[in-house]
C-alpha cells in the first residue's frame, strides 16, 4: 500500500517507516492517520523490529519538527489530539521492539514520537526539545514518558523551559540510547539494527512485554486523563489561543496569565 506522507518497507521481520513530508516532517492529521493505519496493521504481526526514521540530510532537515500548529484551532484540536494520542497507543501495542533513528531535529510531537520508542539512536547533529510551552501549551505525551526516562526534575526543566538539547546531551541524561558521529552514521545504525534482527522474533517480543509489564503498565493509561486536562482546561485558557495565534502570526505572544 502506498501512502502520501510516509514510506513503508517490510523485509526480514523488520518494518521501516520513513517520515516523508519534507523538509521538516511536520505531523498533520492526514499523516498521523497514515501512521495509525500502519501501526494498527502490525498489532498481530510476528515482527522483530519497527524502525521509525526521517529522511537523509540535507534534503530532510528533521526527524520530525512537531505537529502542525495550523490544525490546533478550535474546530480541529479535538480531532488532532485524538489522532495524535491514538498514534502512541497503537505504537505502544505493536509487539515488535521499536527504534527511532534521529538524524536532524526532533521537536515537540516529533520528540515525543522518538522518545516513546523503545530505543532511540541519534547522530551528533540531532536536536531534541519540547518547545510547546513557548506557544502556551504543554506536551501531554512527554509529560507522561519523560519522567520515566530522565527523572521528574529533568523532565520538568525540559518541559517548562522549552530548551533544545543536542544528541550528546540527550545521551548523557538518558533521553536516548546512543549518539553516533555523523560520519558513518547510517552504517552504525544498520549494524545496530542487524544485531537485534538476528535474534528470535518471539523472544524479542516477550522480552519487551516483560519490561513493559514491570515498568510501563500505567503509561498508556496516563495519556487519557492528561488529554482531558489538555482539552477541557488548557484549551479554555486565553493564553493558549494567544500563543497559537502569535506563532502563526510570527510574533511574540502577549501573555495575560489567564
Task: Record the SSE blueprint.
Elements: E1 6-11, E2 14-19, H1 29-41, E3 49-53, E4 62-64, H2 77-93, E5 97-102, E6 105-107, H3 109-116, E7 119-123, E8 127-129, H4 140-150, H5 152-161, E9 164-166, H6 167-172, E10 178-180, H7 185-197, H8 201-215, H9 219-232, H10 238-249
Helix pairs in contact: 1-2, 2-9, 3-4, 4-5, 4-9
In short:
With 258 residues, the chain is α/β, with parallel strands linked by helices.
Describe this structure in words.
This protein has 258 residues and is an alpha/beta fold. It has a domain of 177 residues: 2-enoyl-CoA Hydratase, Chain A, domain 1, CATH 3.90.226. It is built from 10 helices and 10 strands. A hairpin with a 2-residue loop joins strand 1 and strand 2. Helix 1 runs parallel beside helix 2 and helix 3 packs across helix 4. The longest helix is centred in the first third of the chain and has 17 residues. The N and C termini lie far apart (47 Å). The model has no long low-confidence stretch (mean pLDDT 92).
CATH superfamily of the domain at 6-182: 2-enoyl-CoA Hydratase, Chain A, domain 1
Q: What about the largest sheet?
A: 6 strands, mixed
Count the E strands. 10
Based on secondary structure, the structural category is: alpha/beta
Query: Any idea of the CATH topology of the domain at 6-182?
Result: 2-enoyl-CoA Hydratase, Chain A, domain 1
Order of helices and strands: EEHEEHEEHEEHHEHEHHHH
Distance between the ends: 47 Å
Percent of residues in helices comes to: 40-55%
- The fraction of residues assigned to DSSP E strands is 15-25%
* General form: globular
Low-pLDDT runs of 5+ residues are: none
Look at the structure and give the mean pLDDT: 92
CATH architecture of the domain at 6-182: Alpha-Beta Complex
Radius of gyration: 18 Å
**Quick one: CATH class of the domain at 6-182?**
Alpha Beta
Biggest sheet: strand arrangement? 1-2-3-5-7-10
Number of helices, where a helix is a run of at least 4 consecutive DSSP H or I residues = 10
Amino acid at each position: 500500500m502506498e501512502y502520501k506522507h510516509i514510506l513503508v518497507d517490510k523485509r526480514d521481520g523488520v518494518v521501516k517507516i520513513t517520515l516523508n513530508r519534507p523538509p521538516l516532517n511536520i505531523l498533520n492529521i492526514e499523516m498521523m492517520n497514515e501512521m495509525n493505519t500502519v501501526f494498527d496493521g502490525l498489532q498481530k504481526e510476528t515482527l522483530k523490529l519497527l524502525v521509525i526514521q526521517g529522511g537523509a540530510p540535507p534534503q530532510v532537515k528533521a526527524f520530525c519538527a512537531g505537529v502542525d500548529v495550523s490544525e490546533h484551532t478550535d474546530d480541529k484540536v479535538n480531532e488532532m489530539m485524538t489522532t495524535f494520542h491514538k498514534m502512541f497507543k497503537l505504537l505502544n501495542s505493536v509487539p515488535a521492539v521499536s527504534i527511532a533513528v534521529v538524524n536532524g531535529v526532533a521537536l515537540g510531537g516529533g520528540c515525543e514520537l522518538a522518545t516513546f520508542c523503545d530505543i532511540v539512536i541519534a547522530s551528533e547533529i540531532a536536536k531534541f526539545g519540547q518547545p510547546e510551552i513557548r506557544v502556551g501549551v504543554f506536551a501531554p505525551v512527554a509529560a507522561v514518558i519523560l519522567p520515566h526516562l530522565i527523572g521528574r526534575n529533568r523532565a520538568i526543566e525540559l518541559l517548562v523551559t522549552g530548551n533544545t538539547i543536542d544528541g550528546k546531551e540527550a545521551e548523557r541524561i538518558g533521553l536516548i540510547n546512543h549518539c553516533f558521529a555523523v560520519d558513518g552514521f547510517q552504517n552504525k545504525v544498520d549494524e545496530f539494527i542487524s544485531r537485534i534482527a538476528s535474534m528470535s522474533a518471539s523472544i524479542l517480543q516477550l522480552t519487551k512485554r516483560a519490561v513493559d509489564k514491570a515498568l510501563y503498565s500505567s503509561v498508556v493509561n496516563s495519556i487519557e486523563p492528561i488529554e482531558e486536562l489538555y482539552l477541557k482546561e488548557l484549551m479554555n485558557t486565553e493564553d493558549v489561543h494567544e500563543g497559537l495565534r502569535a506563532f502563526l502570526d510570527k510574533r511574540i505572544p502577549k501573555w495575560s496569565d489567564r
